[in-house]
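ok so for the tutorial part 2 we go from a plain amino acid sequence to predicted structure tokens. step 1 is just haveing the sequence, like this:
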Amino acid sequence: MLPIVFCDEHLVAIHKPAGLLVHRTVLDAHERRFALQMLRQQIGRRVYPVHRLDKGASGVLLFALSREVGRMLGAMFEQRQVGKRYLAVVRGYPDAAGEIDHRLRRHFDAVERVAEAALTAAAQEAISRYRRLATIELPYRVDRYPTSRYALVELEPLSGRRHQLRRHLKHIAHPIIGDATYGKGAHNRLFQQLFACDRLLLASTELRLAHPVTGDLLTLTAPLAADFARLLDRLGWTGAVPPQWLPARTDPLEAEGGGEPSPGQR
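step 2 — the prediction. this is what the tokens look like for a chain of 266 residues:
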């Protein structure tokens, strides 16, 4: 069952787990589970996707319950009338805050058949804002330095290009941990070894928009998945995250951090 974070007669928002595709694609022909089909079966009616969320990312994912509302929501996303917030763990220490204004060419899948003109189309405007929330230095050599630095960042994409946040963070030399396409394999492997973390550390935590039918202001929040939250706890970063973005804790041992120390907290 997919966790539902909001539902009325027009919209439904879920917390998509990491590793789940939004819909069927030839790129992952072996996959048999998709958020779109699972949600249709779960609520017993058709749903219409209005935005994307990478397979490796977790977090809030919004669907319309009719074609008309789907078109309205699609236009709102296209016109940048939807506020989006993400959390990510990145390599290195980015500036305290900043804006990445870096045009991106449209990415095509290898199996997509597109005209040569489209493949050489001009890069599109793409802007992302970020804010550093916490940092840590771990006593492990990965590159040429004797220690490795990482940061927790809050991200706000102002445009909606494919893989925008992942590509923008790579552009400023602070790739997201767990990103097999744009990240650094050595750092990804360190997190696998230290924390048994083999996922993309990117989560869509919040969508803010006016309801397309009623006009009511909505803030749709998906608390971090348990594995992401446990990682933040081990790194000593829980206090840097807004409380509404954290999962409710019911296990007293887990609430105390499970007795595991934070390695190299800084």
